[in-house]
Amino acid sequence: xxxxxxxxxxxxxxxxxxxxxxxxxxxxxxxxxxxxxxxxxxxxxxxxxxxxxxxxxxxxxxxxxxxxxxxxxxxxxxxxxxxxxxxxxxxxxxxxxxxxxxxxxxxxxxxxxxxxxxxxxxxxxxxxxxxxxxxxxxxxxxxxxxxxxxxxxxxxxxxxxxxxxxxxxxxxxxxxxxxxxxxxxxxxxxxxxxxxxxxxxxxxxxxxxxxxxxxxxxxxxxxxxxxxxxxxxxxxxxxxxxxxxxxxxxxxxxxxxxxxxxxxxxxxxxxxxxxxxxxxxxxxxxxxxxxxxxxxxxxxxxxxxxxxxxxxxxxxxxxxxxxxxxxxxxxxxxxxxxxxxxxxxxxxxxxxxxxxxxxxxxxxxxxxxxxxxxxxxxxxxxxxxxxxxxxxxxxxxxxxxxxxxxxxxxxxxxxxxxxxxxxxxxxxxxxxxxxxxxxxxxxxxxxxxxxxxxxxxx
Length: 458
What we know:
By secondary structure, the chain is α/β, with parallel strands linked by helices. It has helices at 10-26, 54-57, 63-70, 73-78, 118-131, 139-143, 146-159, 170-181, 196-205, 217-227, 251-260, 283-287, 316-325, 327-330, 337-352, 355-373, 394-406, 436-456; strands spanning 95-98, 101-105, 163-167, 187-191, 208-212, 234-239, 264-268, 296-300, 310-314, 386-390, 409-410, 412-414, 425-429. The two termini are 44 Å apart.
């Protein structure tokens, strides 16, 4: 087979790469002698001319990179600007400035308007004055600061749990904790719309992985009925609010299944803490459940907490173990003083100013009502800060986002392969500071422009 770049298609490259990887996997491993040595290169049964190794060692010839680059052809064909990585030139809340233009923003996780709040910013500045811009070490070494324990105590108080642990990133929190706690002899069952960070943690663990249909606790029950006996630890992972659809997990039902099958329950509250509950204490308060019925409460600081980082809240024995053994904590620098102080102040304000959560709920309800009245498809969204407008066509979603941007409304399109093409959408994030006028203008403009696009392309 001629394997030059001119004649080798993307699919042929993939097939060849797969063949090489399968040959490598099928090779018998050598016994472990306990001695580290340098092994000679393994010769592949498939002979590849030296000049053709470029397909495997030059990035621009990787099939996945070539396929990725093709996605941007759509932008050129539609004659629209890339909607991603736009530079926001000021604090992003209900409004932002892009290219010098004042715009309504629906692309920010700043749900409670605390990023930019003077008290939060002042706390971050004071932390820099007191401790510098970095803690400069892993916390288990010399990176521990008073702010760390204060923040962890505040998070535990918010959840009414025994303790909590803070990590430098939300995505990394899921990856390292799930990957560390679960083992090959264990089972993880996860919602099939789970966030990438949960999936990556599951893969890292080596445990068997079984997805269940979105929000289907009855299907979960059947899976565990059939499989529970074959595994030691079993972890169920769900999210408080799902970030793509804005729907809320039926936490009481999942708690019941967890108890029935002696499993562990992990709840990711990235988009629900500060958003759900009368006072913003999340899905626990929303359903009024016992905090001890969930084994691992997870959340991020990049949304309601106006900072950056992640956390796990739960029993003291678990938290203590994670502090001394979790790779993503043990071998990583501690959260920065500024981020810790910002999150700490935000956590206090969430508790002391529940009216922020109430305003957010009112705005989300108003947006949802107006969108449905205008005939827009809002999918599964319910009482949360995440509201999709499902367009059902990637080209149309790109065009709609582009034309809204031309009308000074910034909202991001979500396209295939992130979602199926018939579920391509614009995803609106609501904040407590949006005005009814901003919401009404946005909904009216979205409905008008979408109708125009559909008529143009019929």
